[in-house]
User: What shape does this take?
Amino acid sequence: MTPVMRVATRLAAFDLRRYLVGALLWLPVHVLPLAGGLVLQRVFDQISGHEPAALRATLWWCAAFVGVELVRGVVIVVAWTYGVYWWCAAATLLRSNVLRSVLTARGPAAARLPHSPGEAVARLRDDVADTVDFTDESVSLMGTTLFALVALPIMASVDPVITLVLVLPMIAVGVLSRSLRRVIARLHGRARRLGAAVTAYVGEVFGGVLAIKTAGAEAAALERLRAHNRRRRAAAVRDRMATDLLDATTTTTVELSIGLVLLLAAPAMRGGDFTVGDLALFTSYIGWLTALPRSIGTILYRLPQAAVATERLSALMAPHEDAATLARGDGVWLHRDPPPAPPPPRHSGPLRVLEARGLTVHGLLHDVDVRLERGSFTVVTGAVGAGKTTLVRALLGLLPLDAGTIVWNGTPVADPGTFLVPGRAAYAGQVPRLFSATLRENLLLGRPESDDDVRRALELAAFERDLAELPDGLGTVVGPRGVRLSGGQAQRVTAARALVRDPDLLLVDDLSSALDVETERLLWERIAGDGPPTVLVVSHRQAALERADQVIVLDGGRVAGRGRLPDLLAHCPEMRRLWHAELVTEATEDRAGAE
Assistant: This one.
């Protein structure tokens, strides 16, 4: 079985009851026209005099036809309402499996997503839709096939020659669809790649607005976007032309079939072998019979599209996972509440000492050693580009190491990215990553901690006064990327998100850059006094450096000095230079604040 068929089968089976009920609801939509055609045959035969008729009987047959169509309309509404749920559930299953694989795969986090975030978003949007649409089309194919299996014998019993003439063009449509399969797959794959490139570029532009404006590159950025769009548009047009060619061929086949029926029916009607009612039956059935080649054609061009989509989604997943894993039906709770979140990992014991030996990241970090003992407050400092953030991300497994080992309590850590996670470690990044959700949701991100835990974390992050001023407290929606918060507030919320996880080791990357001196001192005082037992901070600020038990000075990705601040100021030229520059900067900020 091909990967795309394996995925489609699993999608249909993961919620088999709803899939089958939806299919059974759609079947009457395709089958009821059989009764409508037979009713029309009886009505027109009575009107034309081929059958004895009374006015009342004719009116009853007309009412029966209207009733059939009304029932069919009600069934369509119910089927749509029910079927949309299955479609959305299947799409959710695919997206959740891809995200699970990306978030839980072993290895450096930077290597888990082989493409840009914008490219991944495009795949989760477009390729998921292509895959689910292909599976969903099987319901229409079942209905149209059932209609054809019943309608063709009825028509053959009336006139087998005309029935055969109707079947031959349908076979031709199937052959043409099969021959265009590879062309459609190639064109659709290119259209999807170029469409994803546009999405990825738009995301990069929004993420780098300040850099673009600072460089005066607005015109160049827009021209690049236009170039991406021109290529995407050309590819999308070719892709659409290929699918429209199949649709046009099918439509032409329908028109030819109707014309052939009329040509063949005319002499048969003159001879009395073909009645007006028979003509009404055939013309009524022709429109529905053509749904079969349409469904077959749709399946045949959606098959290569779904194959491309399955391949692109599988590429986002871990190397050891295949297409069957893509549609695995566990881990998504659609009809019941999910189980509680698992407790944080503690099986390795509380942190006593974390050692990093010979950490090397190509071109960024060179043979760096770090030793963090329980209860210590360590500050990593250095000039811009010295490798501070790189060191923290390498410790956490967010960047691949070229060399070096990380040891937790004397035991080597094979995969820091899956070991140094909340429970053991928590990370507050340099750039706040907030969602357009409530403050509580941004802090917990699905974890079960109580509001008391949240408030304690906010107090440690020196945010309790700000919380009191928010209109809805913990229920305040912070807006996209936290736009309703100031820069300093967003940084402290990021710190509180890490603190609420109660880690053994807290890693903070330049968190206080947007804080005033008083708030910053209060923040470090609380974290050092009542926060996690072991803290590693990236900072050049005076308040953090003065509190440090150990300062690590980086210069060009190498350790230029290590020790307490007074010793480094006495013996490390780089530390003296950074310290004096920071004193001047903070004095300038104080004067500006006073003014």
Q: What stands out?
A: The chain has a mean pLDDT of 82.
